[in-house]
Amino acid sequence: MNNFIFQNSTKLIFGKNTEDSVGSEIKNYSNKILLHYGGGSIIKTGLYNKITKSLKDSGVEFIELSGVKPNPRVSLVREGIDICRKENIDFILAVGGGSVIDSSKAIAAGVNYAGDVWDLYTGTPINHECLKLATVLTIPAAGSETSSGSVITNEDGLYKRALGYPTLRPQFSILNPELTFTLPKYQTSCGVADMLAHVMERYFTNQTNVDLTDRLCEATMKTIIDNGLRLMKNPNDYDARAEIMLAGTVAHNDSLNMGRDGDWASHDIEHELSGIYDIAHGAGLSIIFPAWMKYVYKNNINRFAQFGNRVFNLDINLNNPEETALHAIEKLEEFFKAMELPIRFKDAKLPEDRIDEMSKKLVHHKDHVGGFLPIREKDALKILKLAL
Amino acid sequence: MNNFIFQNSTKLIFGKNTEDSVGSEIKNYSNKILLHYGGGSIIKTGLYNKITKSLKDSGVEFIELSGVKPNPRVSLVREGIDICRKENIDFILAVGGGSVIDSSKAIAAGVNYAGDVWDLYTGTPINHECLKLATVLTIPAAGSETSSGSVITNEDGLYKRALGYPTLRPQFSILNPELTFTLPKYQTSCGVADMLAHVMERYFTNQTNVDLTDRLCEATMKTIIDNGLRLMKNPNDYDARAEIMLAGTVAHNDSLNMGRDGDWASHDIEHELSGIYDIAHGAGLSIIFPAWMKYVYKNNINRFAQFGNRVFNLDINLNNPEETALHAIEKLEEFFKAMELPIRFKDAKLPEDRIDEMSKKLVHHKDHVGGFLPIREKDALKILKLAL
């Protein structure tokens, strides 16, 4: 086990009707906030009315900025930064999924930075105070509700880049599983793939002696798989919605990577995909992850065999653990298919003609991505070919 | 799943040599602290010198209060409160195990309270600010290093009572598994029993639809059992020490009880035992827990069968799940025996003549203890008889 520091202070407020407390919770931090959200869905479901009523009841003034799209764009972030500066706003409430939260974090990071916010996503370190933020989560997927990370897309060149900074963790996050009943099936599935991928990125390591976090990862993956399938049968199953919502948070709150290194190549490759094609991140991951696995599993067959054994209940063929490893990858593909997710470019009707470009952009200004096995341009190209 | 609020802000600083950072970490909070510890062991191992050097190097002044004993006493707490008031101290550093940390929390809770600190352990609510505290952990067991709880014994009547309050969670806790190499075998085993019990108290619930936390509990229990046994063979196995130390924290940081009710009757009954006899808490638990299980398992045979299946890898006898449930309890007893812990009063050479008194004191001023099955005086007496 590596030495590590872990701290995650986000207050998790979980369960039915918890969004009613948003005003009184925010009142502890601010009297004037930016209310940041996507589009019509929170208005259609009535959530917008509940949130704004709670804010008004608590005497919290709010300026609105809507229009966040999946794969959130830096241009809207810049708009949010301008509003916060002009209106003297020191707190942001994100109501939505990972895109809205990540966009809010980018605004929070940019307001007190003199340069352009995109700098912070391309290596410029943060030496200033970020605004505080909170979330009301409507899509369990990205884990951004308690994470320190944010992923933003720059329309100029369609670069999708990540920023991580400790004080970008929300002060509190409100998670009501009932708010996810209205999610379309495809979006539910994409969320399930995303959170499963967050655990797998942490799970696939060459480290040994990481027993507890291995087992915590396996516990979370089994729960995601079981309850994801349950939701395919009944999207209004509160208990399954609650398990998925909680698992999505646990998957990305950094408790599962205490003392271990992760991989993250699949995420990086997927960011090239959804940066260009605007495919949902989860659907990109269900395409990339199995291909990555096929390309790298020989690097550590035992780990893939353990994955098959402990997550998919496969017996390990000790005379030929490779068989178990490959069987595990098949089981993962079967799961994604059962969730009605694409596992190949062609399933998502993506063209094949830009995989060279993606492989190049992936390692732009760096030697490689990935911790389990270093992935360079030529490796990325082979992985993308396996995914066609 | 129940509605819940979860927040645990303690910064965990984990790994080799991490105690060297104690001075610089404390400097973020205070220039003058109470250094609270037990007795000779931290001096003998050289830890005292490392800690005080780090404090001096960072310019942190410290007043010492040593003498904390297992099952920490309220009299020493009162002494600590007097020192903090007299010396104008606003931060406490606990160096030791759960007893030292719990004693520190009691001091932290008592300094700004006008009455006697014992009131806070007998129902008087906290309406004042507690001092901040931090820990350098030397015994993985109680989980007090990130928990909000504290257990103190009142010598006057030998009452052992618990207090829980959110701001009693340490600001940071330093966990270096190497510091546990010198723990005597018996103390290591008692710690293992204590942390396993913390998970079991959370695991034995009548709630259904708590998939994720069930599995996270099982992951933690398996890790504790595997690595506990590893330490019986080689107490200097860093990796096993690290797993046990991390598991002890995870067991009691409240992440395993998100959205579920626990039991805690075994802990309550054990507190009567160790309140009177000064037996190590972990050894008391290895006596009480199997007896409690034998008394209550019929209330929810499936849960005990699942425990046997998922923690001890027993096949479930679907025609007779009671057989699996009973087998699971046997396996737990076998584990405690392999850890060289007592599982009956007679193993610990405890007399039998005060079990009536313990059963009475257990429910003093309350109707019952326990969430899985209500335990009243007559039930406690039967459980204690099963433990003789």
Automatic annotation (TrEMBL), chains A, B:
Q: Which residues form the Alcohol dehydrogenase iron-type/glycerol dehydrogenase GldA domain?
A: 10-177
Q: Which InterPro entries match?
A: ADH_Fe/GldA (IPR001670), ADH_Fe_C (IPR056798), ADH_Fe_CS (IPR018211), BDH-like (IPR044731)
* Keyword annotations: Oxidoreductase
Q: Fe-containing alcohol dehydrogenase-like C-terminal domain: from which residue to which, for each copy?
A: 193-387
Keyword Repeat among record annotations: no
Protein's UniProt name = NADH-dependent alcohol dehydrogenase
Matches recorded under CDD domains: BDH
Superkingdom as given in the UniProt entry: Bacteria
Q: Does the keyword Oxidoreductase apply?
A: yes
